[in-house]
Amino acid sequence: MFSVKSSWHIILIFLSLASLSISGPIQYCNPNPSSDIDFCLSVLSQENADTSATDLYITFSSARPAKSTKGWTAVGFGEIMAESLMIITYGDPASDSPLTSIRSTPDHTPPVPFGTLKYGSKSTDAGFSISTISSTWEPSGDDKVTATTTLLCKSCSAWTGQSISSTSHRLPFIWSHNPDQDLSSATDSTTLSMHSLKSFGNFYADMPLSLASSRSDFTPQSINSTRINHGMIDTLPASGGNPADSASASYAPIFRNRMWRLHGLLMTTSFLLLFPLGILSIRSGHPHSFRYHWILQVAASGLAFLGIALGLLLSSAIVKLHQYVGVALLGLLLVQMWAGWRHHVVFVRLRRRTWVSDGHVWLGRGVMVFGWGNLVSGMVLRQYGWSLLGGMVGAIALEAAGLWWVWRRWKVRNGGSGGGLGQAGGRMLGGKGADEFGIEDAGAEQFALVDQDEAFADESESESEEGAKDKADHGDV
């Protein structure tokens, strides 16, 4: 038999559960407002009677130093940046109102006004629209001011980018922040610098809780001053079959960012280190220069293949020149590997250059130029600072100058463009003359950056034991 006290406990529990089931605006506030990242988001939803899609009232606030024009803060729908509908605020607190920019991006590149994108236009055709209802600066103490913006997103669920589902219990959002970019003279279409490397993340919404109790209750909402989260959380519990239902879900943007860094590291190692070393090795005069050359070039190509594949996997679409060049490099490297192998086989038989030899040399030069260019364009897309970008350009320039110097010095020592790879060339690089190389290494010398080397055959009539073995291994093809 229940006591009166127990009965009251049951009633209180029941009332508490009932209060949780009441629909209304859901809210998320950054859990660490003492840092320079201080924002809140409130969402209220209602079905659109005309389109059967979902309308949203969105209120977004972000605090900043009262006298600073630096920085921006953004929130967006979705797990990642690609095709996310983003709301970004920034501006001068001395102005009448903060700037609110609605943007998106097809991949991990600076967001642009959503109407300029294909899927943004498709969304508009489906009835989607978003407009600013109000935007104000509000003093918030401690020499700070808060930019508060309220927006009406009509038929928001018709957005054809990342899902904005009104029925999802675990709808992902992204947030990001840049505290340093000076936006004193910005417009709503100003190009934004990349967010800080640690200033981005996810939170999640139980969207059915955002449904207004009635149509009359679907009105603009203000941020709850208590900053208590309701219907939104930082990290999801590990349960259910939804891909987002994992405590690691909020780590996804950090993981993707690290994968992009790995992509850059793989491509930099290939084109700034291994490929140039492979080119220098074939000019070294070392008895095993050919072996070193092909090992380095195969290793560089392998890393480049991995880097390109990783970049394609991380991209939702191929729309940038950087991506097109990357795909082209993938094909050119395959052709280059075939040309190098074919050149060697033919040279062993004919002991002279052919069109394949010239093609291999010139294709190699082209691959290096495009690869270097893509390293720079990749850093531009990732919005690295001028110091790192300048360092990359400087390293490429020094490397290109060094390779040209080696080629030019060889050419001068061998009597100009008509010179072959004779003893003088070998002695210049501190190795044996070409007539002392075996056929394997003699043939390998044709990979070098030279214009003509037919004279090589005249100086290599005497095959060494290593050359004879190489010829036997390759066969008289």
Number of helices in the DSSP assignment: 11
Query: Could you give the order of the helices and strands?
Result: HEEEEEEEHEEEEEHHHHHHHHH
Tell me the Rg in angstroms.
32 Å
**Gap from first CA to last CA:** 99 Å
Beta fraction: 15-25%
Shape: elongated
Query: Please, what is the average pLDDT?
Result: 76
Strand segment count: 12
Low-confidence stretches: 4-22, 238-251, 417-477
| Main sheet summary | 7 strands, antiparallel
What strand line-up does the widest sheet have? 7-6-5-4-10-11-12
Output the structural class: alpha+beta
- Estimate percent helicity: 40-55%
What brief labels describe this structure?
alpha+beta; disordered C terminus; 477 residues; 41% helix; seven-stranded antiparallel β-sheet; five-stranded antiparallel β-sheet; 12 strands; 11 helices
Describe the structure.
By secondary structure, the protein is of the alpha+beta class. The chain is 41% helix and 19% strand. It has eleven helices and twelve strands. The strands form two sheets. The chain has a seven-stranded antiparallel beta sheet with strand order 7-6-5-4-10-11-12, with helices on one face. A five-stranded antiparallel beta sheet has the order 1-2-3-9-8, with no helix packed on it. Helix 6 packs antiparallel against helix 7 (386-413). It is elongated, with a radius of gyration of 32 Å.
